[in-house]
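User: I'm preparing a small set of examples for a lab meeting where we compare how different chains pack in three dimensions. I only have the primary sequence for this one, and I'd like the structure in token form so I can line it up with the others. Please keep the answer compact; I'll paste it straight into my notes.
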Amino acid sequence: MARHLLEVQARTRLSLGKPIAQFLSAQQEVDYTILKWLSISKGGDEKEYSVYYSEVIGEDDENELDIVEFTPLDPDECPCITEFDTVEGALAFATATHGASVHEYVAESMIGEEYAYYLKARHGKSSNELPPQ
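Assistant: Understood. Below is the structure token output for the 133-residue chain.
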């Protein structure tokens, strides 16, 4: 089974009201790591689709993978939610503004696994040593 959704699968999930997400990057600071991720979902306050962008402080613990629950870097700035009328608008914004790739989305429930892949690569572990969800 492929790890990432095909573009058509991502669009279909969104049109069915199922959110998608993407782990974007990690930025190492002196005392902590900033994790950047986003999700796109159907249903906003004013428009049809919402892009939810967040920067959180990495826990660097292979047993804590739910980055959705991590402490925001700046609670006043993140998460940042931007709304769009169309799936195309939301995906284009995520790509242009946050560097997302249409080929690296996962079901939102899998964002922790994407973080686990990042940790595995960072610590030089093989894919069969992936931490359990």
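A couple of notes for your slides: Helices lie at 7-15, 87-98, 111-122. The first helix runs from residue 7 to 15.

User: Perfect, thanks.
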